[in-house]
Structures are given as structure tokens and as C-alpha cells.
Design goal:
11-stranded mixed beta sheet, rod-shaped, 20-stranded parallel beta sheet, 10 helices, 26% strand, alpha/beta
Length: 522
């Protein structure tokens, strides 16, 4: 019947069916409905229609509004190259198989709110001249907007997508808000010609080579999205995943226009982005962390304390050294190059500046630690500089490990105390003596007061370590830490011991205070 109808309406000049008012509401097409190339001069009504074997509207033209609300496409639905001149309404439609709208043009509003797509949906190179309403749409597969152009759409979503929401090469010309709960969101080479906001859930976001002409805010939404009817959108398709947002790549992005809020950055690769020092990181953004615990390296075990780090450092450490030192570090994927320490130091430096500008001092301190670590391991730097950095690391963890500096301080104080007991304190306190010469009455008397040089201690080491001597030595040590003299008589060796302690121990105390300050600084 449909074939006979379209044959009767065939326009021999245009070589395609020409329909006026087309009303197929609630119709059932048991065979494939082929309206490809058809021209609908007025409104086309397919509300509630059932396409049992699919529908083909490829390159059709709808000059009036196209009504497909509540329609059901049991097989593939083809709308490739279609021109919707006066709006298209697919609200509540169900697409059981693949829905293909590639290269279609929506000259007016496009309505897909509440639609259900059981398989993949393709809107590649589609032009949305007005608003595109996808609020409440459910995609059981993926949805592609490769090269799509949104000329006036101010909102995309909220929608739920079980697989990937692909926006590669899409263009958003006006301020827009994209809301989606999707497993993967890719924005490769997406062009944001105005301010935009990405509100996502359950997503891994890829921003490789995205073009940001204005600020782009990426935020993780804490609660489920609301459908246009006011009910919560079902997210059971993604219930096996964490509802947060994980940013994976920003290669090629101008980060000066990028704002991140409550985003997981533990697997994000920052290499290749520019202006990272101007990146804004707000809210609860987390980075990768170092593996903790003791790592044995030959005879010198090393304790790893937890700190925020970049995944690029994980990749570098996972491919060097002995296997025991690589344990806990994440290896780089096969197609990901491993950066050298010089490049990693530059990344840490830029991101540290960004965190400092955002008043995130704890993470900024961790990134300073990472920068210094990469400088210490950079073989292109002078050996003297690397040796100095190694000493700085060993003494206080680059001024960031208070426990390490305090341990060195207590050790230095203990050594100084023991050295004073054994060699620094005299055997007994020197006693001043006054001598003079008796003269005749009425003449001046000349008196001389001398203090004998402190005598070196004698006897066994056990005899030199007494409670009295320990109290005197402790007083000297404590005063040395705060750079004061204890006014205690010392032997020549003890004098040099005190000078060394007055030089070294205040430095260690200062490093410990600096490390504490870096952790509590606002």
C-alpha cells in the first residue's frame, strides 16, 4: 500500500515523492517504510507510528514540522541527509536498533527529549540551527556527534548514555551547558566558541586538542540529573561505576581557559598542554599518589611517604630501576611515550604555580617535591647541583618532611651530647686564682687573676659518663640548637664541637619548621 501511495505521489520533475499534509499517526508499517528522498510540503505526522522493519527517510525534506513523538523504530532508522526546515519532534520515540541522522540539518528546534535509543545513535556532521532538546534521552549504546554544529543550542542534555558520548570535532557557537551521565565523553578537536560548562557523572573525559576560545568549566555533578518532567533520570546502566568524573587527557589544550571542579586527575596526562600555570583547579580535585611503605634497595631500605603526583611520574618510575622499586607505580600504556625528568620537572613547575594561585598549598608543596625529585634525577644537570639536591632531599625532603629533619636534629644532638661527655667537658671545672705582691704601706697593690686551661677528661669512657656531666652537656646542646652560648667551660675539642653544633643544629631546626609551615600554610 505504501509503495502504491508513494508511486501515485511521485513528482516526475523532481524525481521523488511529493506529499502535502501527511498524517500517519499511529500507523503500523509492517514492511520497511521507504520515504527516502521524499518531499513533505507541509506538516508530516508520524506520532505513535510503528516501523516494524525500520524506516528510511534518507535525504528527505520536511518543510513543515516533522512529528515523530512516541514513534517506535523496531529496526534501523535512517535520517541521513534529511532537512528539517520547521522543526523536528522525536520526544518519547523509541529506537530499538541503530538511529542514523548523519549530515541532517535541523533548521528549527530539534526535540529528542525522553527518547530511547536501544543501540547506537549517530548525529555526525549534523547542523542544529536552533535548540537541540535531548533532555531525558536514554542511549543504551553510544551516541556520536562527530563534526556536529550547534549554532544556537544553549543546552545539550541531560541525557544518559551507557557507552560513549562522542563530541569530536563538534562546534558550539553560543554559551552552552552539556549535562550527561556517560561512561566516556570525548571532546577531541571540539571547538568551544563561547563559554561552556560540562556537568558530568560516571564519565572518563578526553579533551585532546580541544579548542577553547572562552572558559570551559568541567564539574562533577553530585546528584542524578532531573528529566524535563521533574523525575530522576535512571542511571542503572552505569551503576557499576564510580559516579565521579575522571579527566584522562588534555594534550593540545590551552589550559588558560580550563576550569576543573571536583574532578579526578589521578590518570590525567598533562603533557602537551600549554599555559598549565593558568589552569584553575577548584573544589575536591585529586591527583595520583605515590605507593607507600618500605622499598629495599640493596642494603639501604627507603621509606616512601604519600604525596600527590602526576601519572607521568608513575610512568617514568615504572620503567626504571629494580623491580622492587617499580612496585606500586603505574606503567604507561603501550602507545604513551614516557617523559624524561627534565620535562616532568617543567610540568610540575607549571602546575605548582596553578595550585599556588588557587591557594591549594598542600598539593602545591607536593608538586614542588616532585619538581625537585625530577631535577635530582635529571642527568643533564651538573653533577654538583644534583649532589646538592641529594643532600637537601636526605636532610629534610626538600624542606617538606618535618619528621626527617627532626630525626636528623635529634641524631645530631645525641652525637653532640656524647662527644661532649667523652671529650668536650673538662675533667673538673677550672678554679680562678688571684696572685699579687705585698708592698709597703701606702703603695698600690697589683693583683692578677688567672683561669687555668680546662683539663682534658681522663679515665675510661664509662667513668666520663655521669649524671652531672650529662646535665652540663645537655645544657650546651640545647643552647646550641637555639644558637646561644651555654657559658660552660669546654676543652679545646669541646669548643670546636660546640661551634659545629651551633652551625648545623639550628639549620636542621629551621628545616623542620619550614616543613611544618608548608603543610599548615593557608
Amino acid at each position: 500500500m505504501l509503495r502504491r501511495l508513494l508511486s501515485a505521489l511521485h513528482d516526475p520533475t523532481a524525481r521523488r515523492p511529493h506529499l502535502g499534509h501527511a498524517r500517519f499517526d499511529s500507523a503500523t508499517f509492517t514492511d520497511g517504510a521507504r520515504f527516502d528522498g521524499a518531499f513533505f510540503a507541509h506538516g508530516a505526522h508520524f506520532t505513535g507510528a510503528v516501523f516494524a522493519r525500520g524506516g528510511n527517510f534518507g535525504k528527505a525534506t520536511f518543510t513543515g514540522t516533522a512529528w515523530f513523538g512516541g514513534a517506535t523504530f523496531t529496526r534501523d532508522a535512517h535520517f541521513g541527509g534529511v532537512l528539517f526546515a520547521s522543526g523536528a519532534k522525536f520526544s518519547g520515540a523509541t529506537f530499538t536498533r541503530r538511529a542514523q541522522f548523519n549530515t541532517a540539518t535541523f533548521a528549527r528546534d530539534a526535540w529528542f527529549g525522553g527518547s530511547n535509543f536501544t543501540r547506537d545513535a549517530q548525529f555526525n556532521r549534523v547542523t542544529f540551527s536552533r535548540d537541540a532538546y535531548f533532555g531525558g534521552a536514554i542511549f543504551m549504546g553510544g551516541v556520536q556527534f562527530n563534526g556536529a554544529r550547534f549554532e544556537a543550542a544553549t543546552r545539550l542534555g541531560p541525557l544518559v548514555c551507557k557507552e560513549a558520548l562522542v563530541l569530536d570535532g563538534a562546534v558550539f557557537e553560543v554559551p552552552v551547558t552539556v549535562e550527561a551521565a556517560a561512561r566516556v565523553v570525548t571532546c577531541g578537536r571540539t571547538r568551544w566558541a563561547s563559554a561552556a560548562t560540562l556537568r558530568l557523572r560516571y564519565s572518563e573525559l578526553n579533551l585532546r586538542d580541544a579548542v577553547l576560545e572562552y572558559p570551559l568549566a568541567v564539574t562533577a555533578r553530585a546528584e542524578a540529573f532531573l528529566s524535563p518532567s521533574g523525575s530522576w533520570l535512571p542511571e542503572t546502566l552505569l551503576s557499576d561505576r564510580d559516579p565521579g568524573v575522571r579527566l584522562t587527557v588534555v594534550d593540545g589544550v590551552d589550559a588558560a581557559h580550563l576550569v576543573l571542579h571536583d574532578v579526578d586527575l589521578s590518570i590525567c596526562r598533562f603533557a602537551g598542554a600549554i599555559h598549565l600555570d593558568q589552569l584553575r583547579v577548584d573544589g575536591w580535585c585529586t591527583f595520583a599518589t605515590t605507593p607507600t611503605g618500605i622499598r629495599s634497595r640493596q642494603l639501604l631500605p627507603r621509606w616512601w611517604s604519600q604525596r600527590s603526583t602526576l601519572v607521568e611520574e608513575h610512568h617514568w618510575r615504572a620503567q626504571r630501576g629494580r623491580s622492587v622499586l617499580r612496585r606500586g607505580w603505574t606503567a604507561a600504556p603501550e602507545d604513551t611515550p614516557v617523559l624524561k625528568p627534565a620535562s616532568l620537572a617543567a610540568l610540575y613547575r607549571q602546575l605548582r604555580k596553578s595550585l599556588e594561585d588557587g591557594k591549594n598549598e598542600p598539593d602545591a608543596a607536593d608538586f614542588y617535591y616532585g619538581e625537585m625529585e625530577m631535577r635530582r634525577h635529571d642527568v643533564t644537570r651538573p653533577q654538583s647541583e644534583r649532589a646538592l639536591l641529594a643532600g637537601y632531599w636526605a636532610l629534610s625532603g626538600y624542606g617538606l618532611r618535618a619528621t626527617r629533619a627532626l630525626a636528623w636534629l635529634l641524631g645530631a644532638m645525641a652525637i653532640t651530647l656524647l662527644a661532649l661527655l667523652l671529650w668536650g667537658l673538662p675533667a673538673q671545672e677550672p678554679t680562678q686564682s688571684t696572685t699579687g705582691r705585698q708592698v709597703a704601706v701606702g703603695q698600690r697593690i697589683s693583683l692578677t687573676t688567672d683561669t687555668p686551661a680546662p683539663a682534658n677528661p681522663v679515665g675510661t669512657w664509662a667513668e666520663r659518663i655521669t649524671a652531672e656531666r650529662s646535665e652540663k652537656a645537655l645544657r650546651v646542646v640545647v643552647n646550641s640548637v637555639i644558637f646561644r652560648s651555654a657559658d660552660q667551660h669546654l676543652t679545646v675539642v669541646g669548643t670546636y664541637i660546640e661551634m659545629a653544633s651551633r652551625l648545623a643544629e639550628p639549620i636542621l631546626l629551621g628545616l623542620a619548621l619550614l616543613a611544618i609551615r608548608s603543610r599548615v600554610k593557608r
